[in-house]
């Protein structure tokens, strides 16, 4: 009976790491914020696998996973980049962050309504969120470089690039 809740518990852990990452950004602890995003990715890697292994996959699990992913790999890395590099002081910086988050949200919605056959269209939001978390660990003095990463990652999520699931 309890086993059906295990995948959702992992998904909620993913979501919790994303929210905690945002809190760490507010506290200006950017390193720990980035590590929480990476931790969310590790947990996210296994929630679906555990659900399939336990034979408890469900539509609600899929939806919960996407909602957690938009927080942990969309909003949290976007806010991390925004504040880590001082982009919050510029309308173009905020717009760039919003572009990244909107692309991630669109990609997740598109994935949820499509039939998955082992091939992703566009880079998964988890990969982009982790990439941004790792990039945030680099000391960059030019605000246009982080903005470029946000735009590039946003584009990669919605482009027509086909990738096989590993």
Describe the structure.
The protein has 166 residues and is mostly helical. It has one domain (2-164): Four Helix Bundle (Hemerythrin (Met), subunit A), CATH 1.20.120.1760. Helices cover 72% and strands 4% of the residues. A two-stranded antiparallel sheet has the order 1-2. The longest helix is centred in the middle third of the chain and has 26 residues, at 59-84. The protein is globular and about 50 Å long.
Structure in a nutshell:
The protein is mostly helical and about 170 residues long. About 70% of the residues lie in helices and about 5% in strands.
**SSE string, helices as H and strands as E:** HHHHEHHE
The largest pleated sheet is described as: 2 strands, antiparallel
Unreliable runs:
none
Number of strands: 2
Our Rg estimate from Cα atoms comes to 16 Å
Helix content: over 70%
Query: What would you call the structural class?
Result: mainly alpha
> Architecture in CATH?
Up-down Bundle
What is the CATH topology assignment? Four Helix Bundle (Hemerythrin (Met), subunit A)
Task: Throw out a few tags for this protein.
166 residues, mainly alpha, Four Helix Bundle (Hemerythrin (Met), subunit A), 6 helices
How would you summarize the topology of this molecule?
Layout: H1 6-26, H2 30-53, H3 59-84, H4 91-113, E1 119-121, H5 125-135, H6 144-158, E2 162-164
Antiparallel strand pairs: 1-2
Helix pairs in contact: 1-2, 1-3, 2-3, 2-5, 3-4, 3-5, 4-6, 5-6
């Amino acid at each position: 009976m309890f086993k059906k809740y295990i995948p959702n518990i992992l998904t909620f852990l993913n979501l919790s790491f994303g929210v905690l990452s945002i809190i760490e950004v507010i506290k200006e602890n950017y390193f720990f914020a980035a590590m929480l995003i990476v931790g969310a990715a590790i947990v996210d890697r296994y929630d679906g696998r555990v659900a399939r292994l336990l034979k408890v996959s469900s539509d609600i699990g899929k939806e919960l996973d996407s909602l957690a992913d938009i927080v942990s790999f969309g909003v949290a890395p976007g806010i991390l980049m925004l504040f880590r590099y001082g982009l919050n002081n510029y309308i173009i910086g905020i717009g760039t962050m919003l572009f990244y988050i909107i692309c991630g949200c669109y990609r997740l919605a598109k994935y949820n309504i499509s039939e998955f056959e082992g091939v992703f269209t566009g880079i998964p939001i988890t990969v982009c969120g982790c990439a941004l978390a790792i990039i945030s660990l680099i000391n960059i003095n030019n605000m246009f470089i982080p903005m470029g990463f946000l735009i590039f990652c946003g584009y990669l999520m919605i482009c027509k690039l086909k990738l096989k699931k590993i």
